[in-house]
Amino acid sequence: MTRVAFVHTGSFFHLADLRDPAIRAMDITDVYAPDLEPGGLDGFDAVYVAARLHPGVLSRIAPILVEFLSTDGARMYVDGENSVGEWLPGTEETLRGTNFWAWRIGEDVGRRSVNQDHFFWQFLRDDAVHWHYHGVLSHPDSAVPLVRLEESTDPVVIDGPDDPWGTPYRAIPGHANTLMYYDAGTFPAEVVVSTMDASYHHGAGFMPGASQLVYRMLYWLRGATE
């Protein structure tokens, strides 16, 4: 049986994820990150790095996560709001604002599914990745973008609009503007990285697309090939 670690820091939404009967049925292993020590992921086949880990804990366990990526044939999904630009080799992250309800009110924020002929799209659907995001990524050349922001030629859009906290949320001109990518070339392990914080929204009980993404990533991590 494939062993999948759900690495978390015990926030209410992490615990709600682990109580979800659908996730429990997948036999996911609860790994409390504050207790994680070097070698603590040995024997696992895959790791789900839950969204919004405590920054202090994340900075301590980041070398353990990166070391896991040296495991040939392993899989990892890094959920959003985890400052990947600070610890994941080859990836940079630029924070963007958040339009929480664009998916409901029909605003086109420029989000696009891309490279849909890539095999990983058999694990995804548009409704699983088109709800919101918290940053844009640049990444290694071996990575394949799956979702990105499309640049606008409208000067009004380039300079804004902003989210309620005053941060622009549209694409950055000249940037890769990747929101989610798959990479099987940088490490011996496969890794998928996203700026969408799916396990937060699933555990918090809103954003149906987020729940779709959690389930689909766990399905892949458990060894699905189609």
How would you summarize what this structure contains?
With 226 residues, this protein is α/β, with parallel strands linked by helices.
Descriptive notes:
This protein is an alpha/beta fold. The chain has a single domain (4-221), classed as Class I glutamine amidotransferase (GATase) domain (Rossmann fold, 3-Layer(aba) Sandwich). Helices cover 27% and strands 20% of the residues. It contains 8 helices and 10 strands. The strands form 2 sheets. An 8-stranded mixed beta sheet has the order 2-1-3-4-10-9-8-6, with helices on one face. A hairpin with a 6-residue loop joins strand 9 and strand 10. The protein is globular. The two termini are 17 Å apart. The mean pLDDT is 94. This is ThuA-like domain-containing protein. It comes from Brevibacterium yomogidense.
Keywords:
globular, 27% helix, 8-stranded mixed beta sheet, 226 residues, Rossmann fold, single chain, alpha/beta, 8 helices
N- and C-termini, Cα separation: 17 Å
Range of helix content: 25-40%
Integer average pLDDT: 94
Uncertain regions: pLDDT < 50 for 5+ in a row? none
- In order across it, which strands form the biggest sheet? 2-1-3-4-10-9-8-6
Our count of domains comes out at: 1
Write down the CATH class: Alpha Beta
The coarse silhouette is globular
Number of E-state strands: 10
Protein name: ThuA-like domain-containing protein
Organism: Brevibacterium yomogidense
